[in-house]
Amino acid sequence: MIDDVRRTVLNIVNKDNRGYITPDEFNTFARMAQNEIFEQYMYSYTNEIVKQNNRANGEGYSNIPQKVSEMLDRFSVYTLLTYDTIPGKFNTPTDYYYIEKLVYNNSIEVERVEHSKIFNLLSSNLTAPTVNYPVYILSTGTSSVFNPQLLSEDIKVYPSSINSGVFIRYIRYPQIPIWGFISTQTGEAFYNASASVDFELPESDFVNLVVKILQYAGISIREKEVSAAAKSEEIQDAQQKQ
User: Fold this and answer.
1) 29, exposed or middle or buried, with CB in 10 Å at 0-12, 13-18, 19+?
2) Residue 26 has what DSSP assignment?
3) Is the pLDDT of residue 240 over 50?
4) 3-state SS assignment for residue 101
5) What is the pLDDT of residue 80?
6) Cβ neighbours of 213 (radius 10 Å)
């Protein structure tokens, strides 16, 4: 899909002599656009769950939370966390966006608590975490590779004797999209599928991706223009194959 999206973007840009988007610029805008749409799915899911709890949603084709949930399921990961001895914390996966749950030894769920509460929990013999009732807090880590505007977070599990056997189920960011290319001596860039990473969003987001990439490039566009440009690309491809 990524090559089709780029050709549509360039078709729109070139149509009215609006300039040129280089491959590197396109890749930057593509990552930003995909992340924005992906995060909108998360916000939409949360809002729709609230509506569902208030019995404001229907069933079947109108069951929006289920549709969004099915899309997000492709980004759900369950894996073992690695422990960093020096700070005494578990490292979150580099591609994590949202933690669904932590599990110790594949059987005991680790409860998340706020920073403001952990001191009181540790200070009381009645509420102090144990290996049977562990808790965790999040602490700020390094800048996220998948979204440089956000900082990743490390995980501190209590009691501190737990330094292995902690699994995480989380929603990951989509892979960073890359339009790979080969440059000719004249400076032209030709699509290289083997060096590319496609979008992980469904085909139904084609128009959204084109619109948002153009918006990041500072170009105002409407969905009808995107559809027309995409249709033009289809016609050109069909003519070339004849």
Assistant:
1) buried
2) H
3) no
4) strand
5) 96
6) 27
**How far apart are alpha carbons 234 and 149 in whole angstroms?**
36
CB neighbours (10 Å) of residue 129?
21
Q: Write the CB contacts of 50 (distance below 8 Å, at least 6 apart in sequence).
A: none
CB-neighbour burial class of residue 1 (10 A; exposed 0-12, middle 13-18, buried 19+):
middle
Predicted TM-score (pTM) of this structure: 0.72
Peptide bond into 129 cis (omega under 30): no
Tell me which DSSP letter residue 106 carries: T
Q: What is the pLDDT of residues 86-140, one digit of tens each?
A: 888 998 898 888 888 999 998 999 999 988 888 888 888 888 899 999 999 987 6
**What's at 138, amino acid-wise?**
L
* pLDDT tens, position by position, 154-191: 899 999 899 999 999 999 999 999 999 998 877 788 99
The DSSP result for 169-237, as a single string, is EEEEPPPPPB--EEE-TTS-EEE-GGG-B---S-GGGHHHHHHHHHHHTT----HHHHHHHHHHHHHHH
Helices and strands in the chain, H and E counts: 6, 10
Residue type, 154: D
CA angle 129, 130, 135 (to 5 degrees): 45
Under the banding of pLDDT at 50, 70 and 90, the label for residue 4 is very high
The two structure tokens encoding residue 13: 């840009």
